Amino acid sequence: MKRLKRDIVVIGSGPAGLCAAIEAARSGAAVLLVDENAKIGGQLFKQIHKFFGSADHRAGVRGIDIGEQLLRQAEELAVEVWLNCEACGIFDEKTVWMVRDKEHSVAVEAQRIIIATGAVENSINFPGWTLPGVMGAGAAQTMINIHRVLPGHRVLMVGSGNVGVIVSYQLLQAGATVAAIVEAAPNLGGYGVHTAKVRRAGVPFYTSHTVKEARGNGHVERAVLVKLDSQWNQVPGSEFEVEVDTICIATGLTPAVELAFGSGCRPFNSPPLGGLVPVHDRMMKSSIDSIYIAGDVSGVEEASTAMEEGRIAGLSAAHSLGTITDQMFAERLEQLQHNVDALRSGMFGQKRREAKDAIVRSYGVER
Amino acid sequence: MSEVREKESRLKVDGAVSLIELHETVEYILPDEHYDHPVAVIECIEGIPCNPCETACPVGAIVVGDDITTLPVIDPTICTGCGLCVAACPGLAIYLKQQHHSDGLSYIAFPYEYLPLPEKGQAVTMVDRRGQHVCSGTVVRVIKTKRFDRTAIVHATYDSAFYEDVVNMVRL
Amino acid sequence: MNRITDHPILGPLEEAEMVDIIVDGQVMQARKGEMIAAALMANGKNTFRKTVKREEPRGIYCGIGRCTDCVMTVNGIPNVRTCVTEVEEGMVIQTQIGSGEWQ
Ligand SMILES: Cc1cc2nc3c(=O)[nH]c(=O)nc-3n(C[C@H](O)[C@H](O)[C@H](O)COP(=O)(O)OP(=O)(O)OC[C@H]3O[C@@H](n4cnc5c(N)ncnc54)[C@H](O)[C@@H]3O)c2cc1C
Ligand code: FES
To answer: Above 0.85 for ipTM, yes or no?
Structure first.
C-alpha cells in the first residue's frame, strides 16, 4: 500500500469541506481534499436557489454560483483534490486509509484531519415504500438539478422542512406538478417564505397528515394519505387517495458519523441537529486533538452554516500547526464566529444555536 | 409578537399568510391610492437571518439593521420602484404594487422563476397567496437582466378590486 | 423522454455526445458521462432490480451512492450502484435479481 504525508487531509468536498480546505490553504497549510464522489461539491451544486444571510455570507447568490467561486478559490490556492476516493478509516488518530477509483488502497498520514462527510436522508416506511417511485427528496433534487432528468410528473412530498419545500419548488421549476406536501406535525417546518412560494403556485399543504400507503403495479400510481390526531395516531376513516407517480421523502437528515466515530471521536446526542454527532468545541475540534469536524456531520443545518463551520475548522487546524500567528488567528476566528452566529439567530436559528451551545458545553465538561 | 403569530398562524398550517396575519405585522406596508408609481411591498414576517433587500436598495429605502434577523422595513415614500430588491430577495417575498395605475387597474411587478415566461400583452390569470385564481391580468413587460440573476420580473395590470389579494400569476 | 431540456435557472440542456447502452438486451441512448440511473430514468425505466424472495421491484432511493437500492449488474459485475456510475459506450446493464451473480 502506498503511504504519503500531508499537513491536512479534508474528507468530504461539500460546502463544509471545500471551505475548510480553502481556509486552511489560505492559512499556509498543504491541504489534500478527498471525496468519494466523481464530482466535487457535495450537495452544493444542486442548490439552485439564492441563499439567505448577509453580504458576509454571499447572500442573494445561488448555491451553484457560490460553488463555482469556491472551486476557483481552491484552484488558485493549489488545494490538491482527489475525487473517486473513499476514506474508509482513520488509524492512530492520524492516518487516513482510502480507496482510490475503487481499486488502489492509499494511506495518508496527516497531521490534522478535517471530517466533513455531510449527512444522509432519513427514510420512513409504510406499505409500498419500496416501490420504484418512492425516493428521498434529495434524490429527486439530484435528478432534476444535476442530471436534468425528471424522476416523475406528479409528486407527493412527505415532510415540510426546508429541504421538502425547497425541493418541491425546484420540482415545479423543472416542470413537474407537486400534488401535495404532507406534514405529520400540526405546523409546517420550513421557512414561511419557502412555503409561501409553493402555496401561491397552488400546492396544497396537509398538516397533521401522513402517507399511509403507496399503491401501484410495479411503480407508484397512488398515495393514500391519512389524518393524524393530536397523539399522532392515524384517524380511521380519514384516508384519501392522491394520484401521483412519485413520492419524495423529506423527513430529515442524519449526520454521516461512521468515520468520525470509527476513529474514536466521542459522541454527543443532539436530537435537534439530527442525532448523534461528534462532540466539538467552538473551533470545531473533536475530542481527538488531531481531528476537526464541520458541516452536517457536526449537526445538520444548512449549506451557509456548513461553509462558515468549514472555514472555522480549516483555520483552527492550520493554526494548530503554527502556519499563522495567534493574532491573525484570533482576528479571523472572531469574524467567522460572528458570521456563523448571525446565521444562528432569529426564531429558526435560535434552536440550532442552543443545540450547538449544548455540544460545546459538553466538550468543556467531559474532556 | 412572535408568540401571537405562532398561535394563530395560517402561515404555519396553510403555507401562506392570511390577510389578518399580515395586517397584524407592522412591517407589512401596502401603499395606498396616493402613489403615482409602483413601490416595493415586503411580505417577510418570520425574522430569518437575511438582508440582501437592504443591500440591494440603491436609495436606502429598506432598513434591516445590524441584527440581520430584524424584519425589513420599507419607507415607500423613498422607494423609486426600481425592483432591485424584488430580484435580490432569496425568499421571493417582495413585489411592487400601485393601487391606481390606470382606470380601474392596479399594477404589480413580481418575481417569476418558471418557464415559459409570459410575453408582453399576454392575458394571464392572477393568483392570491394561496394560489387561488382571483382575476385576469395583462402582462405589461417582462424584465430579465443580468443584474436580476435569472429571476425574471413580470409586470402586469389587473382589476383594482383585488388590489391586495393578487400576488402572482398562474404558471403557464 | 423525461429530460429537462430547458430550465429557468440552469438554462437549456447542453448538447452532449450520445452513447448506446444495452439494457436488458434493449439499446438505449444515454448522454456521455451521465450516471446509469439518470440514463435509465430519462428513458422511462424506473425498476433497477428485484428482491430475491418476492421479486419486488426497486428503483433509486438516495441518488447519491449511499443506500444501494439502485444496484444492477453492469458488464457482468453485480451490485454496481447505478446512481454513481457513469455510462460507457456499449455498456451492458441488466436488471438484477437478489444479490446477483458474477457473469
Ligand atoms: C441530498 C441533500 C439535499 C440537500 N438540499 C439542501 C437544500 O436544497 N438547501 C439547503 O439549505 N440544504 C440542503 N441540504 C442540507 C445540507 O445541510 C447542506 O445543504 C450542505 O450541503 C451540508 O454540507 P456538508 O459539506 O456538511 O455536506 P455535503 O454537502 O453532504 O458533503 C459531504 C461530502 O462528503 C463526501 N463523503 C462522505 N463520506 C465520505 C467518505 N467516507 N470518503 C470520502 N468522501 C465522503 C460526500 O460524497 C459528499 O460529497 C441537503 C442535504 C442533502 C443530503
Ligand atoms: S440510489 Fe442509493 S445508492 Fe444509488
So the answer is: yes
